[in-house]
Each structure stands twice: as C-alpha cells, then as structure tokens.
Amino acid sequence: MTKPPRKPAKPLLGEAEAPIRSRPRKKLDPAQHQLTLDPMPARIDPCLALLKPRPPKGRQWAFEVKWDGYRLAVHIEPKGVRILTRGGHDWTARFPAILAAAKRLPVSTAILDGEAVVFDELGRSDFGKLQQSLGGEDGKRISWESVCMVFDLLYLDGHDLTETEFTARRHLLEGLVPAGGEEAIRLSEEIEADGDVLLRIACEHGLEGIIAKDRNSTYRSGRLGDWLKIKCIQSDGFLIIGYEKSTASFGGIGRLLLAARKSNELVYVGGVGTGFNERSAAELRQQMDKLIIDKPAVDTGRCAY
User: Fold this and answer.
1) Has this prediction a pTM greater than 0.90?
2) Shared domain check, 254 and 224
C-alpha cells in the first residue's frame, strides 16, 4: 500500500496572511570589480599593408581597391570629432566635409580607419589632386573635395574591436557606413573576385593596385602581413621628371613624378611618395631644385616642379 506524502513541518510559504519578502539587498562593495566599457584610445597606430608582387590565393583573403591618398583615423566622441593623420597630426579643420559627415553618423563613439582621397573625372583617386586641394606649396588649405574611404572599424560604442577578427569588424562597419553612399565618408567595398583577375582589371582602369586582407586577422599595428598591397607598377627603371611639394612630408617632397621610356619618347607612369628618409629627401630636393627647366619634360597633368 502506497504511503501518503509526509506533511511538511511548516507551511511552504509561511503564514497565509504574512507578506512574502526577499532578503534585504546588500550595499555594493566599492572595492569589488565592476564591469566597465573599454576606454577609447587617444590614437591607434595603423595596420600597414606589406608589398607583394602577386595577389594571395585562398578564401581567407578579402580584396579591395588600393586608394591613393592620405591615411586617416576618424575619432567620434560625444564631445566632438577628431581627424588624425597616419603620423598623429590633427587635421580635423582641414577636412570640413569629412568632419560634417562624421557628425551625422548614427553612433556615439567610434574610430574609423580610412583614406582621404580626391577623385579625378573618371572616378579614380588622384594623389596629385588631393595635394593640390590641401594647398600645394603652403600645404595649409582646407580641402572640401576630399572624401574618406573607410575600410575598418577599430572602436564602437565603448568597445575596443582591435582584438576582433576582420570579418566581424567589417560587418559592424557596413552597418554604420552602408555601401553605395555619396557622403564624404564612404565605404571601401569588398570585391568578390579572384585576386589575379581583379589586379588585371584594376590596372586596365588606371588604378594604383589592390589590397588583400586576411579575414581571420585581428587589427595589429605595423606592416606584419595581415594586409597585403599589390601594385600595378612593379619594380623597374624610371626617370624622375619632377616632384610635388608638401609641407607635411620629408624634405618638402610630397611625391616624386616618374616617367619610363616607350620607343623613343618618355611616358608619365605615376609617382612614388615613400622609400626615402628625411636626409635623402632633403638632398634629393636640393639636387632637383638646381635642374629646374622652363618646360616640363613630360606632360603629367599635375602642378609639379
């Protein structure tokens, strides 16, 4: 025979007429660890692309156009927006259109990684036009034409994203800066294509080259191989036919203008803005200023010396 259940010694919920109360809440211990948001860094050294002769293979690589401009970090905070150059200089006042676009983004705090560019009539980024818009010789003008092509998101609404994989950062960036926009802050879109095919098409359209990024990589400052750059113009012998001035670059040289021999004539092939230090740039500038001629050796379509 089944035994009946035992009666509890006391009612489960106490007396029916007695109110039910939880335990008194303890006061917070100020010494106890509290969950906090990540502090917003004043500056993050940029991740730089390592030069390679050919595009990498494999689905882990995402491809973008290589923009020819100035690297920028756009810091957005409730107290205001700062636009910093790769070297950490505050150029907020020099990019008013980018500043206004940053203020309109639907975000409280963020750090955007991108490139300031000026487009030519065919929609290609033109470094010479960018420098001219910033002032040519004095280098202190305001550039209303500049657009920031953003390609990474390093901080968002109190969270440091540098330890987050690239695919996730891109997903968040695309939610903040949608593709196809016409604002002064635009998304540098990922291009689904084979790297070799994309490089060939980029070169046919007169672009500088392409960028490959490891989808699984975190954001690491420096030139460590997580990002790769493949240029249309590889190593070769070129003639220096002039230079563009810049007060922000070594020796006042923003970029050397180069030409190559084709049959019996010289053809302008582009420019280079890196590869020399302050001393070599100053020496090169001194030598070139002694060789100024009245008529350009090659038509570059740029304001050069």
Assistant:
1) no
2) no
